[in-house]
Amino acid sequence: MATKILPFYQKRHKHYDYNYRSSDRKSLVKRYTSKSSSTKRSSSELQVSSVTSQTAKFSPCAKRVCHYPVDEVPEYTMPSFTSREGEEEPRKVKPRSFPYGTKLRAMEDEIARLSRSAHEQADMLALKRMVKERTALQRHIREDTICRAPDFLVRLRSHTVWENSFVKLFCTVQGFPTPLVRWYKDDVYIDQTGTPGKYRMDSYYGVHSLEINRCTTNDTAQYTAVAFNIHGEASSSAAVIVKRFHGDEEPYHSVLLPVKLPLLSPPVFTQIDIQYSEKFGVSFGTEGETMILTCRMILTPNIHRLQPEAVWYRDDIEIKKSKWATMQYKDGTAILTLPHLNKDDEGLYTLRLVTRGGISQHSAYLFVRDAAAPVAGAPGAPMDVTYYDANKDYVILTWKPPNVTHESPVIGYFVDRCEAGTDNWIQCNDAPVKICKYPVTGLFEGRSYTFRVRAVNKSGISKPSRVTDTVTAFDPADFARLQTIHFDASRQIMISQDDLEGDVKIPGSPTNVHTAETSKNYIVLSWDPPDPRGRDPLKYYVEKTMAGSSSWQRVNVEIAARSPRLAIFDLVEGKSYQFRVYAVNKSGMSEPSVPTEPVLVQDRIVTPSPPGAVRCARNTRHSVVVQWVPPKSATELIGYYVDSCLLGTSDWQPCNHKPVKYTRFVVHGLINGQKYVFRVKAVNAVGISEVSQESDPIVVQAALTVPSSPYGITLLDCASNSMTLGWKVPRFTGGSDITGYYMDHREVSDLHWHESNIKAISGTVYKVEDLNEGSFYEFKVSAMNLGGLGLPSESSRPFKCEAWTMAEPGPTYDLTFCEVRSHSLVILWKPPIYSGTSTVTGYLVDICELGSEEWNTVNEQPVTTRYLKVTKLEEGRRYIFRVRAVNSAGAGMPSEPSEPILVHARPGTKEISSGVDAEGNIYLSFECSDMTDASQFTWGKAYEEITDFSRVCVETESERSKLIFKRPDISDLGTYSVAVSDTDGISSSFVLEKEELERLLALSHEIRHPTIPLKSELSYEVFEKGQVRFWLQAEHVSADAHCKFIVNDLELKDSKEHKITFDKSTGIIEMVMEQFTSKNEGTYTVQIEDGKAKNQSSLVLIGDAFKAALAEAEFQRKEFLRKQGPHFAEYLHWHVTEECDVQLICKVANTKRETVFAWYKDSISVSVEESPNLETGECRMHISEFSKKDMGEYMMTLKDDKGKDTSVLVVAGKVYEEIVQEMSRISGLSASDLKIKCTPEGIRILSSLKYYMEDMKVFWYHKDSKIASSEKMRIGGSNDQVWMQICEPTEKDKGKYTMEIFDGKTSYKRNLDLSGEAYTEAYNEFQRLKAAAFAEKNRGKVIGGLPDVVTIMEGKTLSLTSTVFGDPTPEVTWLKNDKDLEMNDHHSATLEQGKFASLTIKGVTTEDSGKYGINVRNKYGGETIDVTVSVYKHGEAIPEVKRGVVVPPPPASKPAEPPKSSRFGSKK
């Protein structure tokens, strides 16, 4: 399948969603959709291939720098040939002939010419790349045939230079693999970081140079270049002599230079030397974690403006900054942060530092494991989801399948899409798609989308993959129809082909209809739009027919295609189809296109066959190189998955979680010393192949190499025809033990070397015989291991063969150093072979600081041991040592001076620790985190290697080694040491003293003779029936544990009276005694045995302790009997509600409907409003407005045929006080802020609260002084208020007032400031009320005497009398029907003594009925009192008259004639 080139806009175009952020963006999309002429790129730029954005973990930076052999480089090398299949042919630019002038036509020709030139240059670059890849392959093929050890073609030459000048040493080295060269000064490694700018080391195509700047006399030394690779090493040395300029001497005076040359100018650096001080190593992470890769370096020279450019790569593809990866470089530290790991981030990471002088790089692999699946057994997430061939309404997605080992195979994938700017993920396919490719349709033109994929197996669905970059649904052909004409830098013309074609009515037929994608599930049909297309938007309809049939069927009936692509589903696998396309615009439908050739519905690719010939090779202590042969049948292969399994198990684990492209892979993270087998699976878009055959088992160990050269050859003894020589073991053993040495010798005058030994020398001392007396000889030594014979050492200095006859001893040899710390070190040596005329009695150690010629003796008295700890050294300085043996004749010949030793504590140095393991073995332990693949631990006592293992044994596992004592005793006291080979002198020592040994022995005895730990000692508890349970619990016991219960020296067995149980799963031992009586007093003991472990626990129940236990048992027995009938589960207790009501509450149990509930107070039965709740058993008595009158003894009784129970609560004393305190708490919390209320007597300060009673502790304060109740200050309250009244307030009463309610624990305070305006207003209101009260008191008023209603018979005399009051004496006025009553003979009024007022009505008639009132008034006011008078006639019923109802007068009747008087005579 041809890979489509993504248009630039799908990477650089701004993406839009429904919510346009601005009118500018809305306008831009509108112009695009309306096919207006707007673009920012020319059509030639559309051919640029988009680069898929790289997603990238945060692995902690490796804590040590790992040096890998040169031949390991190919484990991350690109394969020699990269397939160009699928690349598009260069597109020929079709000349355009538009009618807009000669200049435009010429410009088009120029653009076409430039395009052809660009394609030719691209082809030339591709050809060069192919030639380079072929050359790399050929070089890789010849590697095994041209391997050889280093050899100096041009050796170093000695130089003599003037002070403050510079010198440059050159040498040329050949060898394969390319040798590495290290430089030494007087056998001391030259560290550029120690003196930045002093040294500069270069290497170009085998020519190596060392430049020394601004030479001083201290630079006078022998300089050595040591070249080495995996096949050996070689060295070359030269002397540099620095002379100091004096007076008339002229520097550089030689035949090669002019006589009067000026001094050389300071060196100018043309490149930056980079040394890595810390590198990131192979890292492991899990999806979702954060990984940081860090690399620290030292730059020489470190110039701020010439800092290197740090570029990060993953699998040779540059990592761009994104939300998945951030890069940072500062102060010599390069950091790559991967904030959210996905399997897409797995691969080989390379940091390339680009400087003016070249490129320095470091690489390491990052492995990313699958995160925990959302469903157990679900597969891992797919990875590397990418898209291509995007158009208006569809895009094709591809991805890589996950590796499965324990999980069931993947059966398909779900594809999800999400529109940019939203979080709404929509599943695109209803059924899982089987292959790793899917065309997503139904997109909306102009909108942006992201996609993700989820894998499915029978257990469930995986986590989603990492989302893709945002892609916009645009038609790339629309941009190809735009032309840009540039007039100058600021002016240009943009022309659309739509403007040139004019109006096109019915479109033409689509052309070039073909299948772009074919599978058994779908076919992607592609075509070219009709030409000319016209301005109107086009839609397309596709028809299909079976091959050979003429019956066409519309494919997209409901929705027309808007882009010249369409994915067609629902086809029959194995059938052939033909397709044709119609173009439609607003004017009509085109003729159908030319039908396609028959297309067979089937997969173009199939599942690959399994790889073969899986082979493994040792690499490092934790890695293995796996190689295999590609599968015989594999189409569009994505890569390979490698699985590993421990031999003897079936636990297969994935080695890589992202397919690798090569047939060679280094598997990391393996366990050293374990045997593994491996298998490989091939991967393509259809799926994963069957597993390959398993590889042969391989033990994970470091690869073997030959050892380095021995050094330090010393003459130890000499006879007339023989010489005894010694040497030091190689610094690097090559991964296995040294099996022997071979020595060569020659006379100084002879050019040929002669073998000194035929059989390998087992030690580091050898006697060479058959030599010529008086001759000078040179020697060299080679070491051998399982990897072969190493390179020979440097030739020794000439030694003369003549017999030694001196009385003093010969030289000691093999000076070694260990335990180098900040201010001390330990030096070790071997005794001299030649002891002189008497035995050696001791040794003297001499020291000399590097650069000085003065030797000083460290120890004043000779030491008898062959080691010495030298202290009081200065950190950071270098020292040289030598040792002299002493006998009775004196001090003998000194040893060869040692190499300079830098006194410096290695970072992270650890010491030997002592301890006791789980089996009680005493051990010394040492851990080394900087071991190499060939490192080994060597234990010694008194700095002599332990070879007798009758009393100790050594156990080593990974980076930790233990020296275990078999039968420790006082003979094991002493100094123990350990050294780690193939490291930079890592070692430590431990002095085992008597006190420490005794502590370890005690701990060992405790472990070997253990006691069973107890969680709880023996104790007892009483059950509700009065039973007593004795129990204890052990920490943990085995199934073989057993126990004994002993009471008063008698063992109890399990019986009905004593039920004994031992639950070994929980460690609980218990004994339950049914009847606990006075006979059970005594000592109770439990004994436990579990193998060797024992323990016991005792409980003494004698005297008071027994009486308390017996009393509790009897009480519980009685309680149990009580509870058989109705009883109180909770006895009476009180509770105060939030409304300050008191409730007496109890809870009953075992009651029934017939149970009688009775309440009593002071033995008097009382009734309660709330009936008992038989469901919950709660009974309540409610007491509102609680006060002292409610004190007393409250009792509740229960009674039925089962029994009777009583509960009593005495509400008095402390109980009463606690109730009042609780009410005080509630009231204090509810108290309102203090308020002012004025009265005629004074100013009242009050607070409202829920309830107040006299027994509450309420205190008042004025200016923090407590106020007592008095005539001046009255304190009181009501049910819902508490107040304090200030009678007749004065200025002294101003200030802050505080009311405090105390509940026994907490005070609740409220404050009021009665001063200023508040006091003035209150005082004025008090005066007003006081005056009103005085007026009310002295005004005129009726204080008694008048009835409300008076009923009287006609003709009677009515007298209304009342008592009045007023000061001064009030005036009295009588009223009738609210009108003043006129006084006459019929009505008369009197006022006696100023307080008794009367109204007399003589001979009342019905006309006198009505409402009468008395008005009493003086200067302060008055009042009117009414009385209703009803007059009835004789013989009538007494009417009922209500107060205030006016009795209507009777109807008017003819007045009766007066009786004739006798005094008057009749009329004539």
Can you put this structure into words, describing what you see?
- The longest helix is centred in the N-terminal third of the chain and has 41 residues.
- With 1468 residues, the chain is mostly beta strands.
- A five-stranded mixed β-sheet has the order 2-9-8-4-5, with no helix packed on it. It has a five-stranded mixed β-sheet with strand order 11-18-17-13-14, with no helix packed on it. Strands 21, 22, 24, 25 and 26 form a five-stranded antiparallel β-sheet that branches.
- It has nine helices and 100 strands.
- The radius of gyration is 57 Å and the shape is extended.
- The termini are far apart.
- The N terminus and C terminus are likely disordered.
Give a topology summary.
Blueprint: H1 9-12, H2 23-33, H3 102-142, E1 148-154, E2 159-162, E3 167-176, E4 180-185, E5 188-189, E6 199-204, E7 207-212, E8 221-229, E9 232-243, E10 273-278, E11 283-286, E12 291-300, E13 309-314, E14 317-318, E15 326-330, E16 333-338, E17 347-355, E18 358-369, E19 383-388, E20 394-400, E21 412-419, E22 425-427, E23 437-441, E24 448-457, E25 460-461, E26 471-472, H4 476-480, E27 482-486, E28 492-496, H5 497-501, E29 511-518, E30 523-528, E31 539-546, E32 553-554, E33 565-568, E34 576-585, E35 588-589, E36 599-600, E37 612-620, E38 623-629, E39 637-646, E40 653-654, E41 664-667, E42 675-684, E43 687-688, E44 698-699, E45 711-718, E46 723-728, E47 740-747, E48 754-755, E49 765-768, E50 776-785, E51 788-789, E52 799-800, E53 813-818, E54 825-830, E55 842-849, E56 856-857, E57 867-870, E58 878-887, E59 890-894, E60 901-902, E61 913-916, E62 922-927, E63 937-941, E64 944-945, E65 952-957, E66 960-965, E67 974-980, E68 987-992, H6 994-1008, E69 1014-1022, E70 1028-1034, E71 1042-1047, E72 1050-1052, E73 1058-1063, E74 1068-1073, ...
Parallel strand pairs: 2-9, 11-18, 93-100
Antiparallel strand pairs: 1-3, 3-7, 4-5, 4-8, 6-7, 8-9, 10-12, 12-16, 13-14, 13-17, 15-16, 17-18, 19-20, 20-23, 21-22, 21-24, 24-25, 24-26, 27-28, 29-30, 30-33, 31-32, 31-34, 34-35, 34-36, 37-38, 38-41, 39-40, 39-42, 42-43, 42-44, 45-46, 46-49, 47-48, 47-50, 50-51, 50-52, 53-54, 54-57, 55-56, ...
